[in-house]
Specification:
Elements lengths: L7 H16 L4 H8 L3 H8 L7 H11 L3 H17 L2
Helix pairs in contact: 1-5, 2-3
Length: about 90
């Protein structure tokens, strides 16, 4: 099955990333500044318009002081639920 940025599992990962950003009290612009990327990149990730690759994911987790293993658990659980029919 081809993965898209609009899949169930990517939605769960996006929600987790947004939650972690908000828990740190960061706006999209503030997170982007810390991440060293344009704010539109963060916005696109959170708004289902851009997939995040694994290296970028780990870097962004470090920026948010979030455990990337926790994020991977979210993704793995969502993939398993998706296979079972949610």
């Amino acid at each position: 099955m081809k993965r898209t940025p609009y899949s169930y599992e990517h939605e769960k990962l996006r929600q987790w990333l947004k939650q972690k950003r908000e828990e740190r009290g960061l706006s999209i612009r503030a997170a982007a500044e810390l991440f060293g990327r344009h704010h539109s990149i963060i916005g696109k990730i959170e708004q289902e318009r851009k997939r995040i690759d694994i290296a970028e994911f780990v870097e962004y987790c470090e920026t948010l002081q979030a455990d990337p293993h926790e994020g991977l658990d979210v993704l793995i659980n969502a993939l398993q639920r998706s296979k079972r029919g949610k």
